[in-house]
Amino acid sequence: MGALHKLAFLLGKLDPGKAAWKERQLAKARELDVAREAAEQAVEDAFARDQGDYARKLYLIENCLFGVDIQPIAVQIAKLRCFISLIVEQEPDDKLPNRGILPLPNLETKFIAANTLFGLHRIGQMELVMKDFEDKKAELRRIRHEHFLARRYP
What's the pLDDT score for residue 150? Predict the structure, then answer.
């Protein structure tokens, strides 16, 4: 969490008016083939509401932060702290659905309970892991992004 807050602080110092951040988000929206106008409008709406560092923190959590701990409770606490860090950046607006509070991301693949201290010891395991590595890496990146943004609607 310290890394998240420090990175958000540094981004705030580098781009205090959020002009570069907004332009980067609009450039990403313009790259879309489907629903380009809707994506551009969503970016404009988000910046019009000026939700503090919510967008920056969401980006950092999705692309820069990962967590592994052997204790499952530590993983749950890390997820909760991320949720709290995101939710405090949003301002409620009674005129909007859900009071204008955006849904929280799915962090199940970002923070996991596992033992990271044992490796691949068998001969041949490393070759099996490295086979088609770049293709699998790109596919995993796409799946993680979709999973991170997964929302459950009634």
Answer: 77
